[in-house]
Amino acid sequence: MKLFRFLIFLGSIPVLLLAGTPVEVRLSEAQQKLRGEFASKAQSSERKNAAASAEADGWLFFAAEFRLLSLGRFWGDAAARVSRSHKAELADPVPAMVDFQKQLKERGIDLLVVPVPPKAAIYPEKILAAFNVESDDAAPFLHRFYEELRTSGLDVLDLTQLFVQSRDDKRGGVFCKTDSHWSGLGCMLAARAIAEKVRDKLTTAGSRKEYVSEWKDAQISGDLASLLPPGSPKGGPERIEVRAVSEKGTGAAVEPEANSPVLLLGDSHTLVFHDFLAERAGLVDQLTQELGFAPDLIGTRGSGATPVRISLYRHSLKNPDYLAKKKVVVWCFSAREFTEATEGWGKIPVAK
To answer: 127-147, pLDDT tens digit by residue?
Structure first.
């Protein structure tokens, strides 16, 4: 509780210089108010022992994202004070991410980091009605962190601006209202942006086939309703649109390709609409449509921080030549992992 009161106090300071570092983030009055709202929402959810919160217009949000957005600087020497990591020495994401990139580079593999923006950073007016996301950044510290990663040599694809521009599309929002994942539209937009970056990194492509896509209605039961405080109205199913992808001529579903030069690695954002909630419409499907060949896939329904890199290592143990044909690893996971990953950010070998 003391931590959140302290965070709210920090939010009243227009310029934040934390822990004597050169990191400076200037907050507008609107950003200070929004940060205070995020802190208050995170604190309220914690007090109610709830992992989700219901906000304006039936939109549900993951409380862990409120917490991330309420924090100031969360990397470097500040990490151990604010991270959920069980071990202080594993709280800072930067060393592990830089180490991962270095290991891949030594094997001739490029890394593209794709953090999925917090839903509340794209739809902040659902939390603070007066906030205009088109004129004010709802996640200034997160974007300052991406600058830090780029300075450390990582290639980071920030989807925030793309999502803000498309958040009121005719096909709906870029996130599901009642689920913690992006929508079918958000997934497709992310794939297009990723594919554009991947093409620049590839000298050879995978086995090409022709694919076709079709927008379809899907009915989902969002994962956030069950995480609301006890006694909260659960609401009904949510209808969204997804872009289903199949092989031209045969109608076959996309199958991840083990020998593909591109590996899609990450949390449940790499699996949603492919393994659950819908079919043929996940990130691997959308990337296949955009690239003209299927990527390989290592996804987890758990954390995309350390556990999924352990999964990659296990693949390499089973097949010592597993990484030989890989040219690009796309690492896609929820941005909340930067502070909320309880197992922290350990350095994991990519191969023996």
So the answer is: 999 999 999 999 999 999 999
